[in-house]
């Protein structure tokens, strides 16, 4: 009955970075009347010793490690059973936990870099060495990191299935290492070790053309191979000055521009001039184990169409805008050059490359002339639906496929409805998240940017935590946010911070410091993320308090504002209808409130009182300065009313009602088109629903004219666009610089679909309590959502049948629900199990 035992955020806790990992589990099929009141955790160590601990508690999420701390490399098996009264569950399947290197002083090998080759103008260097083993190993671990990105092989076999290791972090302060079980790749005697190094984020272009070496100008690798023999002895080998370096087949590589490879050149040191290696300062104290999964190939998609463009070029359509690689099977003569260019859309039948800005997004291969060659890149990625292929005259549809790349997150959320357009919109949101959650939450995957913009993830984090298990992924990114935060509390606009603004502070963007930890805590019930991030959260709120001065109104300094408001001109994305001071002050109140609640939960009572008072004072200042007696809000546009309504920035019911009426009037006057940008869009439908106008919220959702969510769907979009009109009705691409066809920010509407349309809304951390209260207006005849919460699967579905509504609900053990049928004035509370409800349909 116990299932899914986890350590920290991991189902497979291999190379974990904590000596005392917290444990979580969920229960299946708990009988009626079951009330967990204790649990027993059992540990089996490598020496066959067994220990168990019984804890009097009904908790099952992130419970403290009850044993002595793990030591580096220690491997244990942990299982749990749960008690209720006189009964116990069955013992869970054991979870194997293996610690990584927990003390930086245990790194014994060297960080090495080629002495003369592998420079900025060179291709990817191949570093190589040998490992001489006295006997076959019974266990072998490779601990690996790099300046750049690395593919490691042993005896010609690739190590691991992850991509772009070790990932992108705030390299100067936090450098990830990864742990691999390589026992099966080694043998007695001499073993060849090779590390192929790419520029990646460390030394590739970032932000703007020609901006390279953001972190350093030398690629390097650190590999520590630890071999254990049958007699228990351990041998440590790896990178040192005995290694050499040679040129590889990769002549150039860059995330923005692509990769060039000559397949006539072997990726082997045989027959090549060998360069020596230099030792670099390892900075071992900054090495950390990852808390989230790596980037992997998560899916393979076949090509769906071969096209010929008006200019005669061969185009491949994969039917889906995605992030990853094109793989081609070819049979050609030696020296033949094959070129693959990528784009998300076609414009007048040709590859639409203008939104790529300076990014070349091109891969080129020179064939070796073997019978069949497989062409795919290694150290780059592209955002694309279409590929233009040159140099393969007899290309067949079956010769081409797309490999989808992204952080390998477990899917946890689904939605469907009676309207196929809405379902396509939701699927577009999922695909945009898949493409942009690649090592970190990026803004877009195709042009010369691909950065961890804080504004994008703070609006999208509730959607992200529903759709995929992002607990470890976002916690990892938040660690970088803390590391990059300025001494005065300023939060950079992108994390990791490659913009390096001297005094970063912008409402909605920098507020990711408070909003994202709050979203992670709500979704997963992890108070630890608030504990870890609390200094960062507090520093950001104090930074705002220092900016605003005595009047508590944030009316100074540059702001992004309601970025990409649809009325903004193509060349000025920050020129929005919403007064930036109104937006900034509303966010100040929100962050102060989040901090006050977090301080309360963490037992910081003095802080809790201080920040609760600050929130009240900022609200009062906002109301006095920006809200009239009848509820009109300064700058009188959809965004300011939406922010005021969802944050309840009103003094009384008269103002609330007046603001709701004014928002409704603005929506009707706009013909139900969206008039909001990055800040207003995530909350506009919630605001209408809260104001008692769900009918208008549905009208906005289902509107197809531009700007609207469904406009892109009608234009055959398969991801969410950055601009409402990234593609114009005539099929031409918006001339604005900020034009991406894969940008998840406006996809934050999916959170409203989950919570309000389907009616599955968490009301306490970890979904321990939920509210099921679907908005049924007659615009849809059915909707359903399913979510794999930390306690197990929750499923809600409703359907209109004639004059009745049928609602079904499944809740796991540990979750209780308040169920409100449409039009009902009272709720029904239910616990775990399968529940059905039926009543006369009352539209809201």
UniProtKB/TrEMBL annotation:
Pfam families of this UniProt entry? Bac_rhamnosid, Bac_rhamnosid6H, Bac_rhamnosid_C, Bac_rhamnosid_N, Ig_Rha78A_N
> Which UniProt keyword terms apply here?
Hydrolase
Under the heading SUPFAM superfamilies, the entry gives: Six-hairpin glycosidases (SSF48208)
| Domain Alpha-L-rhamnosidase concanavalin-like: from-to ranges | 309-405
Q: Which InterPro entries match?
A: 6-hairpin_glycosidase_sf, 6hp_glycosidase-like_sf, Alpha_rhamnosid, Bac_rhamnosid6H, Bac_rhamnosid_C, Bac_rhamnosid_N, Ig-like_fold, Rhamnosid_concanavalin
UniProt catalytic activity: Hydrolysis of terminal non-reducing alpha-L-rhamnose residues in alpha-L-rhamnosides
TM region(s), chain numbering: none
Which is one GO molecular function term here? hydrolase activity
Protein name per the record: alpha-L-rhamnosidase
Where in the numbering of this chain does the Alpha-L-rhamnosidase six-hairpin glycosidase domain appear? 410-757
Keyword match Cell wall biogenesis/degradation? no
Bacterial alpha-L-rhamnosidase N-terminal domain residues:
138-299
Tell whether Protease is among the UniProt keywords: no
Task: Identify the residues that the record assigns to the Alpha-L-rhamnosidase C-terminal domain, covering every copy.
Answer: 759-834
Q: What is its EC number?
A: 3.2.1.40
The leader peptide range reads none
């Amino acid at each position: 009955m116990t299932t899914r035992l986890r350590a920290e955020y991991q189902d497979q806790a291999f190379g974990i970075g904590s000596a005392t990992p917290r444990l979580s589990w969920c229960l299946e099929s708990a009988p009626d009347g079951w009330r967990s009141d204790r649990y027993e955790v059992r540990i089996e160590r490598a020496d066959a010793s067994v220990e168990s601990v019984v804890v009097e508690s009904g908790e099952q999420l992130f419970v403290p490690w009850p044993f002595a701390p793990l030591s580096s490399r220690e491997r244990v098996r942990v299982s749990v059973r749960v008690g209720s009264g006189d009964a116990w569950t069955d013992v869970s399947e054991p979870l194997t936990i293996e610690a990584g290197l927990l003390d930086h002083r245990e790194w014994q090998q060297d960080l090495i870099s080629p002495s003369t080759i592998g420079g900025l103008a060179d291709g990817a260097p191949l570093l190589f060495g040998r490992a001489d083993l006295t006997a076959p190993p019974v266990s072998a671990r490779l601990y690996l990191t790099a300046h750049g990105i690395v593919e490691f092989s042993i005896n010609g076999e690739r190590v691991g299935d992850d991509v772009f290791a070790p990932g992108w972090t705030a390299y100067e302060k936090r450098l990830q290492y990864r742990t691999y079980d390589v026992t099966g790749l080694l043998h007695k005697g001499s073993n060849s070790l090779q590390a192929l190094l790419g520029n990646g984020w460390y030394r590739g272009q970032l932000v703007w053309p020609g901006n390279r070496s953001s972190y350093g100008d030398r690629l390097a690798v650190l590999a520590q191979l630890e071999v254990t023999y049958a007699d228990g002895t351990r041998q440590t080998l790896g990178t040192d000055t005995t290694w050499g370096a040679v040129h590889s087949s990769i002549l150039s590589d860059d995330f923005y521009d692509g990769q060039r490879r000559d397949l006539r050149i072997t990726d082997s040191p045989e027959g090549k001039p060998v360069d020596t290696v230099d030792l670099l300062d390892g900075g071992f104290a900054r090495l950390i184990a990852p808390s989230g999964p790596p980037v992997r190939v998560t899916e393979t998609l076949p090509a769906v169409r071969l096209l010929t463009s008006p200019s005669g070029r061969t185009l491949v359509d994969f039917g889906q805008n995605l992030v990853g690689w094109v793989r081609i099977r070819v049979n050609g003569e030696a020296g033949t050059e094959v070129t693959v260019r990528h784009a998300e859309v076609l414009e007048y039948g040709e590859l639409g490359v203008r939104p790529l800005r300076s990014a070349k997004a091109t891969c080129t291969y020179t064939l070796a002339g073997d019978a069949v060659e497989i062409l795919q890149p290694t150290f780059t990625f592209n955002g694309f639906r279409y590929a233009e292929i040159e140099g393969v005259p007899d290309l067949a549809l079956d010769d081409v496929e797309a490999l989808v790349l992204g952080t390998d997150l477990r899917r946890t959320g689904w939605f469907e409805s009676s309207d196929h357009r809405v379902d396509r919109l939701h699927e577009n949101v999922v695909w945009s998240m898949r493409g942009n959650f690649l090592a970190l939450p990026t803004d877009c995957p195709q042009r010369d940017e691909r950065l961890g913009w804080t504004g994008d993830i703070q609006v999208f984090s509730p959607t992200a935590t529903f759709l995929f298990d992002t607990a470890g992924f976002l916690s990892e990114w938040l660690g970088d946010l803390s590391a990059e935060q300025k001494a005065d509390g300023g939060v950079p606009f992108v994390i990791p911070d490659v913009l390096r603004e001297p005094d970063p502070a912008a409402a909605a963007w920098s507020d990711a410091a408070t909003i994202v930890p709050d979203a992670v805590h709500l979704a997963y019930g992890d108070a630890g993320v608030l504990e870890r991030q609390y200094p960062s959260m507090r520093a950001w709120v104090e930074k705002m308090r220092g900016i605003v001065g005595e009047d508590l109104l944030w009316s100074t300094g540059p702001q992004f504002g309601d970025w990409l408001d649809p009325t903004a001109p193509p060349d000025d994305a920050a020129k929005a209808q919403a007064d930036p001071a109104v937006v900034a002050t509303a966010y100040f109140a929100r962050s102060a409130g989040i901090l006050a609640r977090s301080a309360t939960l963490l037992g910081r009572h003095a802080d809790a009182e201080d920040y609760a008072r600050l929130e009240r004072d900022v609200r009062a200042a906002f109301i006095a300065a920006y809200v009239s007696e009848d509820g009109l809000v300064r700058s009188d546009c959809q965004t300011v009313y939406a922010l005021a309504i969802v944050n309840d920035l009103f003094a009384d019911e008269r103002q609330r009602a007046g603001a709701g009426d004014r928002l409704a009037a603005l929506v009707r006057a706009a013909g139900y088109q969206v008039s909001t940008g990055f800040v207003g869009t995530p909350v506009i439908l919630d605001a209408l629903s809260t104001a008692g106008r769900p009918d208008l919220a549905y009208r906005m959702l289902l509107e197809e004219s531009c700007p609207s969510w469904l406009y892109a769907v009608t234009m055959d979009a398969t991801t969410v666009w950055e601009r409402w009109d990234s593609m114009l009705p005539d099929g031409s691409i918006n001339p604005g610089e900020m034009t991406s066809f894969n940008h998840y920010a406006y996809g934050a509407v999916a959170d409203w679909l989950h919570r309000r349309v389907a009616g599955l809304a968490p009301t306490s951390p970890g979904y321990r309590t939920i509210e099921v209260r679907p908005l049924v207006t007659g615009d849809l005849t059915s909707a359903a959502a399913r979510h794999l919460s930390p306690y197990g699967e929750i499923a809600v579905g409703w359907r209109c049948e004639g004059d009745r509504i049928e609602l079904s609900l499944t809740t796991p053990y540990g979750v209780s629900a308040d169920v409100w049928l449409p039009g009902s004035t009272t709720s029904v509370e239910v616990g775990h199990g399968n529940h059905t409800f039926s009543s006369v349909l009352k539209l809201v």
